[in-house]
Amino acid sequence: MKCAETGLWSYYLGINKGENMKINRKFWIAMLIFGLMGQIAWVVENMYFNVFIYKMFNATAADISNMVMASAVVAAATTLVMGTLSDKLGERKAFMSWGYIIWGITIISFAYIRSVTLTIVMDCVMTFFGSTANDAAYNAWLTDRGDSSNRGKIEGINSMMPLISILIVFGGFMSFNLDEMSAWKTIYYIIGITTTIIGISGLFIIEDDPDLKPSKESFVETLIYSFKADTYKQNRYLYAILLAFSIFGTSIQVFMPYLIIYYEKTLMLSNYVLIMAPAIIVAAIVTAVYGKVYDKKGFDFAVKTPIILLIAGYMMLYASKNIVIVFIGSMLMLSGFLCGMSVFGAKIRDLIPENRSGQFQGVRIISQVFIPGVIGPAIGAAVLKNAEVIVNSDGTTSFLPNANIFSSALAVIIVLAIIKRKKLSEE
Predict the structure, then answer these.
(1) Domains in the chain with CATH codes
(2) E strands, 286-418, in order
(3) Whole-model pTM?
(4) Is residue 354 predicted with pLDDT exceeding 80?
């Protein structure tokens, strides 16, 4: 890469003289479009499928919890198996590209769904292809292409994607009346077609790591590698970080499935998008900058700030319904969430044994998705069991999430803070 090509943005990304040659312009283009589109699709699932079944089918808190939990189980199993398969074959590009192509087609199918049960079933089908493409292949690809000199930088940019995608989705959804099925049909077509197009582009722009080779072990040996006692003994600190990450994620999943409903229905913020947009922008900037803190200061130092930001955000969201306090609390919460994802993600990638990135995506997704996705929503549903109920214009009833989701999330993150202070340090 010639120095003349280097601008401010290129300099920040590291496209300059002396940069690891694995990290070139084509890498950043592929990472940005696949990372962003993948997160847009996940945001629609994680934050708006709940709204979809709430508005269209009067789903209960238990329905929402069941959908999140079912998706988490499928995501974990898929990432484990398909991540192992990608290691066995020595291939990421095909899994990413074809996975996105089919992922987009499954998203379109939601335009024709008319029940909670079918939504849950198709959510699991969609999750299989999404997790194959994104959770397994894309994340293994990022691990393959980075190294200890740029891991925090890559994770800082990659961890911006969820917030940027939230901003895009929030802004895009403003033009739709989400109380009408026709609006959802249009949304699913737009997201699905775009995801498929991105997948097609990957056939031309994605480059696998030249050092990636097919595993010589059998598929079963490769599959069980990260669950073997010897593997655990050799990577104790990695598994400690994964456990901490699962606690972090559980805290997020206590409130996240109900967040938009809380803003719109409980706080009566019909313009919640306009309120949340500045908070999202600030959080995205903080996350991008904070990735370099990890590179310079290491995990033990970098993980403290996200925990503090989450605690402060939760306390403010629980204590007040004032629009200014809600804005500040949301900004702190989102900043803590994404900075934490960046720090944990970078540390996990640094600790994964060389040439084992695909196999470890399974235990990573168990930590990041399965445990939080099963325990978090269950806690949220439990605290909302006796939530206030409203009567809709058609005579049906719907629950109203309350601020207890934030106090419960606070309790979980405090557990992590205690563990971090007493036990979570590298030997």
Answers:
(1) 21-422 (1.20.1250.20)
(2) 389-391, 397-399
(3) 0.77
(4) no
